[in-house]
Design a protein that fits this description.
mainly beta, four-stranded antiparallel sheet
Length: 85
């Protein structure tokens, strides 16, 4: 690939993402399994729903929810696995 793929959404990492809190958010959720690393700022893409981390029997570090689908390149790069949407 010679240039960016226009079909994938871009995330501007120079702009802060306002937090979304688990107990307040009522919109759609995309749950991802944390395969190899625990939840922390540098271990997953920005924008997760704060307080949404849950234990899961198939993932050593549980799951975390996002308000939108994480782009496939980030899912692969951060070694996440879509559990539910």
């Amino acid at each position: 690939m010679n240039g960016p793929d226009d079909r994938l959404p871009t995330i501007d990492i120079t702009k802060p993402v306002p937090p979304i809190f688990d107990d307040e958010y009522q919109g759609p959720r995309f749950r991802y399994g944390l395969r190899y690393r625990p939840l922390s700022t540098w271990n997953v893409p920005a924008g997760w729903i704060v307080g949404s981390a849950r234990p899961h029997p198939d993932f050593a570090h549980g799951t975390v929810d996002y308000p939108r689908e994480v782009p496939p390149d980030l899912v692969e790069g951060y070694e996440l696995e879509l559990v539910a949407s």
